[in-house]
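re: ur question from yesterday

yeah so i grabbed the chain u mentioned. its 128 aa long if i counted rite. heres the sequnce exactly as i have it in my notes:
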Amino acid sequence: MALLTPLSAPVTERVIGAAIKVHKALGPGLLESAYQGCLAHELTLGGLTVDREREIPFSYKGLLLQPAYRVDLVVEHQVLIEVMAVERIHPIHEAQLLTYLKVGGFRTGLLINFNVPVLKDGLRRILL
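ran it thru and got these structure tokens back, copy pasting raw so excuse formatting
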């Protein structure tokens, strides 16, 4: 995996800061959709561009599947965010995010699991 690009590093830092604010205010135990909406709002309040439920098409041998994937958030057109509220992040979650990054042409992604006592324990940064 690569190092953070100069453009994505400040964005991921701001996303993580916003996620910490949301987690401190709400704590664990809510549905993913609640965290997704609150995080999108917090990021927008912070002056970032946020696309929610963005569709990512996928093609296989000339067959275009659209929408193939729907990602939770795309911030500043460069960082893909998957919001979770699960007991723990499993390797399959990381593999799915890697697939979304490859298919969507992104280099940086964050898995954010809000169902933890301390948010830093629920963060995974994935880079291509």
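noticed a couple things. The radius of gyration is 14 Å. also Confidence is low (pLDDT under 50) at residues 1-6.
anyway ttyl
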